[in-house]
Amino acid sequence: MRNATAGVTGMLWHDGGHFIQALEGDVDAVAATFGRIMDDPRHTAIDIVANRAIARPMFGAWSMIQADESKVGTESAVFLYGLTHDQDTPGKRRMREVLREAFEA
Question: Which of 55, 79, 100, 105 has the highest local Cβ count within 10 Å?
Answer without folding.
Answer: 79
